[in-house]
Structures are given as structure tokens and as C-alpha cells.
């Protein structure tokens, strides 16, 4: 097999260069002399993620399609931490991307199954307020184009950016409780009755009928206790100004020929 470099990254102070090769090895090089210092062994598939620590020049993170995430000490050529992304009942999930937090105390990864993995120090309480599975109910809804070639949501026939805020659902399309629906921008101040989605029965491509969110209840902005939408107010104001200009133009337009000019109307 002809070796190919899949990723390359400099460490924090640029003294070292780490390359990922398609033979599953990571190689650590002296960036000044080009000397090979270490071969890092551990991955079993190609690596497309190399992330340097934001301030510790010794630390490098690697992750790949084998589901492995390694924290390396590249000055010694040793692995410090290892995590294997095993998904129950589905095997491992390939890791597609990773990023350190600015303070270097946490890092987050995304995998091929749509999971966000968060690693770090301290307790996980700040992250426990949200459910494990979160999707918008409109995430995989089909789109169509109208006669002007504009994109519309197939079900509601509305432009996606003009639709009400979506509902949060799990992977099977079941809506989450109202306390989670308030996490969606635009639904923070909604009354409880506006946080309950309309459910209906939808046929899947396999012919199976399942219960899913099929519609949205829009919020009445005039209801007491709710803050009006700034964007909706601007749209209404622009429409009112346009109507006023149109009315003024119609009033000022001549109703017939003036000074003998123009074409007379037929009876």
C-alpha cells in the first residue's frame, strides 16, 4: 500500500509536526530538522482528526473512523488517555471532528451517528438539563420549489425561514416535555398550551404508520404576557408603509385626460 498523509497538525509552539498516515500510524516530526521522533500506535483505521491543545505544547488529540479518541504526549511519544466510541447495538461510531475548549479543560467530538460527545473535568450537571436525543421535528422534512423556484416546506407550503420555531423531539419523532421546548429560540416565553405540538399519524416509506409531529401551533403575539416578535413588528410596519404609499399614489393619479392629452376612454 502506498502511504498517504490524511491529516497534519502543528503543536501549540510549532516545535513538532504530527502527521496521520493511511497505514493508521501517527508520526511526530521535529519541525526544524524534519527528523522523525516517534511513531504513535493505537488507531485501527484512518485518522482525519488532529487537534492540538490550546496552551499545552505536549498534548495532541487524535480521532478516526475506528471510533478511537486518543490524547497523546507527543514529546514522549506516549498515549495519556483513550476512549472508544462504542454504541450499544450498533458497533462503534466513527469520529468525524473534535475541538478543544478555549481553556483546554474540555473537548467535544461528533460521530457518524449524530452524537455530540463532551469530555472534561468536573461534574456533568450543566449538561444534564437536556435529553440525550434532541432533533427538530422539521429536520428531515421534504422540500419543494414553487413556480418562482423558491424553496417551500412540502407539508405547510411555507418558506422554511417563515415557519414557526420547531419542536424538539427524540429520534423516533416523539415530542419532549414543555420544559425542553422552552430551550428553542422563539419559544422561551410561550404559554404551556403553545408548547404542545399537534400529533398525527404519518406513513413511512416502508408503509408503516407512526405517530409523529405533523403540525405547529403558532403563538398569538397579541396574547397578554407574551413579548411581541421584533421581526414580525418590522414586517407589519413595512407593509403598512407600503399600503400607505400605494393609497397615496392612487389618490394623486389623474382620473382622466388633462390639457387635452392622453387617450380618451371608450364607452
Throw out a few tags for this protein.
four-stranded antiparallel beta sheet; 267 residues; 10% helix; Methylamine Dehydrogenase, Chain H; mainly beta; 34% strand
Topology summary:
Elements: E1 5-10, E2 16-21, E3 26-30, E4 36-40, E5 47-52, E6 59-64, E7 68-73, E8 78-84, E9 86-87, E10 91-92, E11 95-100, E12 106-111, E13 116-120, E14 135-136, E15 143-145, E16 151-153, E17 168-169, H1 178-181, E18 198-203, E19 209-215, H2 230-252
Antiparallel strand pairs: 1-2, 2-3, 3-4, 5-6, 6-7, 7-8, 9-10, 11-12, 12-13, 14-17, 15-16, 18-19
Q: Which CATH first-tier class of the largest domain would you pick?
A: Mainly Beta
CATH architecture descriptor name of the largest domain? 7 Propeller
SS-based structural class? mainly beta
What is the H/E string?
EEEEEEEEEEEEEEEEEHEEH
What gross morphology would you assign? Answer: elongated
Tell how many strands the DSSP assignment holds: 19
Quick one: biggest sheet?
A: 4 strands, antiparallel
How much helical structure, as a percent, in the residues?
Answer: 10-25%
Strand order of the largest sheet: 1-2-3-4
